Amino acid sequence: MAETTAIRTVDGAAARVRAPAATITDAASWTCPAPLRDHRTVVMGHGGGGQLSAELVRHLFAPAYGNDVLAQLGDSATVTLGGTRLAFSTDSYVVRPLFFPGGSIGDLAVNGTVNDLAMAGATAAFLSCAFILEEGVELATVGRVAASLGAAARAAGVVVATGDTKVVDTGHGDGVFINTAGIGLVRDGVDIRPERAAPGDVVIVSGPLGEHGVAVLSVREGLEFGGEVRSDTAPLGSLVQAMLDVCPDVHALRDPTRGGLATSLNEIASAAGVGISLQERSLPVPDAVAGACAFLGLDPLYVANEGKLVAFVPPARADAVLAAMRAHPLGAGAVAIGTCVAEHPGTVVARTGLGGTRVVDVPVGEQLPRIC
Amino acid sequence: MAETTAIRTVDGAAARVRAPAATITDAASWTCPAPLRDHRTVVMGHGGGGQLSAELVRHLFAPAYGNDVLAQLGDSATVTLGGTRLAFSTDSYVVRPLFFPGGSIGDLAVNGTVNDLAMAGATAAFLSCAFILEEGVELATVGRVAASLGAAARAAGVVVATGDTKVVDTGHGDGVFINTAGIGLVRDGVDIRPERAAPGDVVIVSGPLGEHGVAVLSVREGLEFGGEVRSDTAPLGSLVQAMLDVCPDVHALRDPTRGGLATSLNEIASAAGVGISLQERSLPVPDAVAGACAFLGLDPLYVANEGKLVAFVPPARADAVLAAMRAHPLGAGAVAIGTCVAEHPGTVVARTGLGGTRVVDVPVGEQLPRIC
C-alpha cells in the first residue's frame, strides 16, 4: 500500500504555483515532533503499515513535503494532468525471501502497484521499475526476478516503460530491492476514496484472507505448512472494472496488504468517521491459514494479502457487486463480512460467534516484518 | 539518469494488448545471456551507468520485460495516456554520504527525476517518493532528508503526490535509500530524443562540469578541497523551457549524471549513429575540479553532474539557444563544446589543445560508486 500524502484532483499547473500551508524549510534545524518522540531511531514498525507508519507520514513526511491537505493514508493519488485524470502510486518491495510459494518479489512489485491504482478505480497502463542490487548477488537471481516481474506485467496488461538500476556495496543492501511506480487512467464517473464510506454500506472482501503473509513466513521459518499455503499475489484491475460495471458508485476500496484487513478497515473507519461492524464468522479464513496463525501466534486479520480487496458498497447494489465479483476468477470467494455503521465512529468491532463483541484495533508496529 | 526500456508514444490501451516480440516467461529456467557471462554476480559497475549498466539493461531487463523495441538508455519515457502526452521517469538514490557540500540525497531525489523529465522537454508536475530506511537510523536524519526533499520539490515547482516507507533490518540497508518517479507534461511540438542528433548540430553544455562528483567524493574521503567544490544539484525544467522558447526543435538533451559527460555523449552518438567532435579546451572544467581530479586520478569528463545538461541544437539556432541559456541563472556558464559530424559514427573524439585527437570512450564500470 502506498502512503499517499494529500493531493487529489490537483492540476499540475495550479499545483506548481500554490504556496504550502505549513512547511519545514531548514533541514539543518529539524526537531522531532512530539508524537514521534517515543523513538530516537527508526524501528521495524515504522515500515509496518500500522500506527507507527501512519505517525511517520503524518508528522515527518507530510510537513516536510508541505502539502496543504492533511496527510492521508491511501493506496494511490488521483491527479489531473493535461486534462486527463490519472492515478499515481508507488511502493518499494523488500520482501524476504525473494521467492516464496505462489510468487516472488517480481510478482509483488507489479501486482502491488497495479492494485494500488485499481483501488482508485484506475486501470494501470505504465510502470516504472527500479532495482537496488547488492554487490555480490548472483546475476541468475536478478535474471529470475526480472523474468517473473516481466511475466507479471504481461499478465496484468501493464507496460514497464522506464527503469533504473543502482548497486550498493556488500552488506549495505539485501540482494534485491525493487521500487515500482505506476500510472493509470481513472475510470470516468468514479469517485472512490476512504472518506466516502457511509453508514449502511456493505463491506465485502474478495476472497480468503491471510495467504500471502503465511506463505512468506512459512518458507522463511522453514515450517511444514509452507507447502499448503501459497501467496495470493494477483492483479486486481479487471476485478475492479467488473465491479464498476455493475456499480460505478463503489464508495471505497482498499487492498489489505501490510497490516492486513484490520488495518485497512481501521483506516477507512477513521478517514470516513464511521464505525464498522463485522460478523467474525463471515470472515473467510482458510483452515490452513487459521492453523498456521494459531501455531505462529498471529491473528489472520493482521496478516498481509496481495491479491484481495475490501469494498464499501451502497446496500442497494451490494448483491449485484457480489455477483459480479463471484463471476470473476479473482473474486470467486467474495463475501459480505459486515456493514458500515453510524455508531462508534473510527472503530471496527467484530461480533464473535458467541454473540460477544471485540474491538479490532490497529497494530502499533508490525507482526511480520518485510512481508512485501 | 533513468534507464528507459523502449516505448514511446504508446497509448495505454494499445500497449496492453500487443504481444511482446521476445520474452522470457519461465523464471525458474533463466540462463545467463552470453554478453553478461563475464560476471557471475553483480559488481558495483553494474550500477555505474557505463557499459556494464547498459549491458544489464539490454540483455537482462529488456528481454524480461518483453518490450518490442530494442532497449534504449534514455532519461525518461514518453507515453500517451488518455490523449495526454506524458514523460515518465524513475531513479533510486543511494548516494553516500547523505549530506554533502551543496546538497543532500533529498535534493538529488527531486532534481534528478525532475531533470530526467526535462530532458524529454517535459515540465515535472508530480513526484512519487519512496524511502527504504535501515532500522536504527536516527529519526532526525530521516527528518532532515525529508525536509531537504520537500524544500527541493517546492523550489522545482513539483508536488510530492504519493509515497511509501519500508524499513529493513540493521545491516541490510544503508541508512536511507530513496526512489522517486515523476510524471510531467511534454511540451507541444517538441520531439527530443537521442536519435535525433544530426550532423551539423552544435553541442552545448550548460555550465561547469564535474562539481557534483568531486563534492561528494571530497567529503567522503575527508579531503581538503571539499570546502571549495559544491554539488551543482539543481532543477533544470525552467532552463529547458527557456531553450525551447527560442528553439522548439532542440534535437537531443541529456543530463550528464553517472558516467559524466563522456557517457552521455557516447550514448547519443551511438543512438543517433553520428560522430561527435569536441574542442577539448572549450570544456568548462573549473580549476578546483581539475585540481581535485588530478589529485584523485579522475577524468572530469567522467565525473557526475546533477544540475547540468548537454544539448544538440540545429546550427541555425545555436546562438539563440546559447543566449537564452546564458540569460538563465542555471545556464550562465553555457558554452558550445563541439559539433555533431557524419564521420566516425558512434564515436566521440576530442581535439586536444596541442592539435591532436583522442577518443573519449565509455567507462566499463564506474570510477565513483554511489555518487547519486
TrEMBL record, chains A, B:
SUPFAM superfamilies: PurM C-terminal domain-like, PurM N-terminal domain-like. Pfam families: AIRS, AIRS_C. InterPro entries: HypE, PurM-like_C_dom, PurM-like_C_sf, PurM-like_N, PurM-like_N_sf. Residues 199-348 form the PurM-like C-terminal domain. Gene3D superfamilies: PurM-like C-terminal domain, PurM-like, N-terminal domain. Residues 75-186 form the PurM-like N-terminal domain. Belongs to the HypE family. This is Hydrogenase expression/formation protein HypE. It comes from Streptomyces hebeiensis.
